[in-house]
Amino acid sequence: MTEVLRSMKRLLAIGCALATLVTWPVRAGELDQSEAITKWLASYDAALNAKDLDRLASFYHPEVTIFEGGSTNDGWADYRDNHLGPELEEFQNLQFSHFNVKAHPLGQDGRAAYVTAEYRLKAHVKDREVDAAGLETLVLVRDDKGDWRIRHSHMSSRRRPPASPAPQK
Known about the structure:
- By secondary structure, this protein is α+β, with helices and mostly antiparallel strands.
- The chain is built from 3 helices and 6 strands, in the order ααββαββββ.
- The protein has a 6-stranded mixed sheet with strand order 2-1-6-5-4-3, covered by helices on one side.
């Protein structure tokens, strides 16, 4: 009976080792894909800071949905013309960045992922300084060329404490 237990333990050890070897490349691939998505998002930030709408178009799926500021934009043209474009025109000294980026590949084919991140936006708009931070979730899909496109974006900003009331005279 002892010999049978030793054989079973050996088989179990070999099975565990094989399972690790078989799944390790998948996990390594997920890490590579996650790193690639993080770099892709950094290039998005650079295009946004440059206020380059032509370059930004390459990041969005034509039928993207955007949930931001309590409103919805349907499609890149709607978002560009009625939200992002006018906003970028108003921003001066724009500084936008993502951090704490976590990319989560979906499915075995590597054609979809979702990303969670925090963002920070600083800019001068008209007569005030904007200093906003918040959370963003992106749903990404690959196009026919294999490039990532934002299919859905949901941004929320953190509540800021109310400004202190001005002293009464």
